[in-house]
Known about the structure:
heterodimer; A: 439 residues; alpha+beta; 25% helix; elongated; B: 9 helices
Amino acid sequence: MENFDHIDEIIRQKFENFEPEPPAQVWENVRSSISQSPPPSPSGLMLPILFIATLLVFIGGLLLNYLSGNEDNASTLINRQSNLKTAGMISTGSTTEPAGTLQDAIYQTYQDNHLEQVMQTSTTQARVNTGQQEIKVKAPFQPVNAPTQTMNPGKAKKDTPPVPVTRGHWNPGLRQALAAGEITVADAVNYNLNPRDVRKLSGYQDYARNSIATWSIGAYFNPEVTNYHSADIENTVSYSVSVLPQMTINHFFIQSGINARFTHDKGNSAISYNRFLGTYDDVYLVTFDSTENGIVPTYFTEEVAVYDTIDHYAITETQASYTYLEVPLLFGYQYDFGRVSLFARGGPAASFLINRNIPVQDPEERARVVNVDYQVPTRSQVNWQLMFGAGIDYKLSDRISFGLEPTFRYALKSEYDLSGDLSGSAHSFGIRAGLNYKF
Amino acid sequence: MYTDKELIERCLAKDPKAQEYLYKRFSRRMYGVCLRFARNTLEADDILQEGFIKVFSYLKDFRHEGALEGWIRRTIVNTAINYYNSRVADWSETSIEKAETYSSSAEQILATISVNEMLKLIQDLPEGYRLVFNLYVIEGYSHQEIAEMLNISENTSKSQLSRARASLQQKIKQGK
């Protein structure tokens, strides 16, 4: 025994500082396996639906615009002569998918190769896929043990999950689970698939990961300054908030969603009104009740405002507020540099005016407004723009990133009534900032 | 650069730099282990890859009760065991009296050969012999532990070791 111990010690010492350099490809394979994103959550399924719905709205907007032609310009003119005859009330006059077949093909190729490999293990040549390239190596004769059930012994059993599959044999369930994202390559390893199989799967998943769209959603805030080509319109400041789902394939992405933009125009309101002179109590009902003291009358009255019959005029400054619902369809490219990625995007956007509000200030206290003539630019109901931007995205975590992006917007069709003097397109500059969540 | 604790925390937070640092810190030593258990470099690559995927997958289970390197080494060894255990066609017990001692000439040769020559000798051992030889002689496990790990009896472990030693001695003599 002493002899053995001595020799064992010699052997141990020989390997004490034995630290050869492993091939770089091993780390690449490990890295690709451990950096896989988790399977998409069920809530992620809502994004494609939302995206398709947005796309439909966009296409619907195109059709609507095509069918309506220039009619919308005429129909969107603000009613400048809104006669208001309601006594005692002031009205603002407000218009009141990687295709399954491809995956199957890949899997079938894999399966064929794998079966071939199993069948040929009794020969002296085996084909080994190193992930990057396929090389042929001479392998020593190895007898084939017909499907050998993997043993799961002692300590090894404590550190690894149960072994439900047969080593060296492809389990179709695993392929489905991998394709569905239910398990990772690391899981497949733990199911004791042959590492070469795993290496192939890793390549398969790399392919799948790069080829299958990834989804994210961003929420942004975007202040802008708009410069109109017409000298009659002052530059305006607007701001918008948007929620934009994004589909990314490799470095390219397509983005659409909803953008609410708030802007305003300064103008005047020419108000025709009657002055308030006072009130009197008008008796509208009298009742008589018999009491011990005789008949007692009860008068029911209401207060009635009295106005001057002469029309007075006043011009007050006003600020008309507008809300647009915009549906952009943006195409872009992004490139990652670690935590930072640079991107550029651009595309058309349909803009729908969904709300306008023009407040009217009282020219005098309790005056009766007879007529309001709004002297503000009239805006079209639908207009088209081209949006461009290029910016930087900084990953705050695996899923959340912060984006900052200078933006440029060019109006293809004026936001204003083309029949007036306010025709001409406009362009805007802005800064868009927001958070992006990757599913 | 990192303490073990920091390194683990960063790896668990999926910090790619930390993951790469952990791999680079331990991969050379573990590759040496893999080469001893494997028949050739291709299989050693497979074991190393599979082993490190397990390391990163189960790092959250590391209890900080011992050194990180020891835990990683045990994971790699277990991976190698899983890789080869099922391939051992015959664990049948054989006579233990195969190699009671190394001959003095074999002992002298063993002391002078290079680590690569020694590695080749071990790699050429049959699966069962190699597994038990590595676990007992170099990794320092007892026969009882090896029996548990490989799901074999203690006597089988002893007989495999004995045969491994005999085989080694024979190869040394042949190569002399």
